[in-house]
Write a structure and sequence with these properties.
6-stranded parallel sheet; 3-stranded mixed sheet; alpha/beta; 33% helix; 9 strands; 16% strand; Alpha/beta knot; 2 domains
Length: 235
C-alpha cells in the first residue's frame, strides 16, 4: 500500500493504516508526484494499493454452477467503450447478484484504473470472461440453455413482462449510442425494452443495466429483507 506523504491526516487514513497493520500489508509513504505517476489516472486520491492481477475466467467457468449455488445470471456487453459506464455497470452487477460478465476481446473497454475506480471494488468480486466474438458466444449460451435477452429500446416486449425468475439468463447490452450490433441482435433469443415515461427514448447503458439487473434479482427472489433498504453511506 502506497500513501502520498503530503496528505492531510484523516480518519479514513488511520483506518487504512490499522487495516494494513492487522493484515500485515506493507505500507509506505511516497511523494505525491511518484504516486500520481503510478496510478495512471487523473483523479488519484492519495492512496494506491498494488494487488495481484484479476483472475481470468472462461465462458465454461461462468456456465458452471456449484451445487446449491445460484443459477447463471450473466451480463454480456456489445462494444461498451466508456470506462465510467463499465465501472458503474460492474458495480450494479455485483450488487444485484450477477454471477459473471462477458466482454468482447476487441473493440471494447476492459478493466483499467478508471474502470476499477468507478466500480468501487466490484472488479474484485464479479467474474469477468473475455471472448473472441460475442455473436458466437451468444450461440453457445443459447445451446447451453441460457436465455439470452438483448436490451433494445425499439423492442415491443417489456422486460417486466418476461418470466425471468426460473432459468439461467444472460442480459445483453449494446454500445453507447449505437446499441446492439445487427449480428448480436439476431443471435439474442429475446429482445426486450425498459418502458420509459418521459420524453427521452433511451437510458445510459449503465443505468439500463442497473434497472434490468435488479429486476431479474427481484424476480429470482435473491434480494432478501436485509437488502431492502439501500446503503446510502457512500452514494
Amino acid at each position: 500500500m502506497l500513501v502520498a506523504a503530503e496528505l492531510e491526516e484523516a480518519e479514513i487514513l488511520q483506518d487504512i493504516r490499522e487495516l494494513c497493520d492487522a493484515r500485515r500489508v506493507p505500507l509506505r509513504e511516497v511523494s505525491r508526484t511518484r504516486l500520481d505517476a503510478l496510478t495512471a489516472t487523473q483523479s488519484a486520491q492519495g492512496v494506491l494499493a498494488r494487488a495481484q492481477s484479476l483472475p481470468e475466467y472462461s465462458l465454461d467457468d461462468l456456465l458452471r454452477t456449484r451445487r446449491g449455488g445460484p443459477r447463471p445470471f450473466l451480463v454480456a456487453l456489445d462494444g461498451v467503450t466508456d470506462p465510467g459506464n463499465l465501472g458503474a455497470l460492474l458495480r450494479s452487477a455485483e450488487g444485484s447478484g450477477v454471477t459473471g460478465v462477458i466482454l468482447p476481446r476487441h473493440r471494447a473497454v476492459h478493466v483499467t484504473p478508471s474502470v476499477t475506480k468507478a466500480a468501487a471494488g466490484a472488479v474484485e468480486y464479479v467474474r469477468l470472461a473475455l471472448v473472441g466474438g460475442l455473436p458466437t458466444t451468444l450461440m453457445q449460451l443459447n445451446d447451453a440453455g441460457v436465455w439470452t435477452i438483448g436490451l433494445d429500446g425499439a423492442a415491443t416486449t417489456s422486460l417486466y413482462s418476461l418470466p425471468l425468475g426460473d432459468q439461467p439468463v444472460c442480459l445483453v447490452f449494446g454500445a453507447e449510442g449505437k446499441g446492439l450490433s445487427r449480428l448480436v441482435r439476431e443471435r439474442c433469443a429475446q429482445l426486450a425494452s425498459i418502458p420509459l415515461g418521459g420524453q427521452l427514448n433511451s437510458l445510459n447503458v449503465a443505468a439500463a443495466a442497473a434497472v434490468a439487473c435488479f429486476e431479474i434479482s427481484r424476480q429470482r427472489g435473491e434480494l432478501g429483507p436485509e437488502s431492502a433498504a439501500p446503503n446510502l453511506a457512500d452514494a
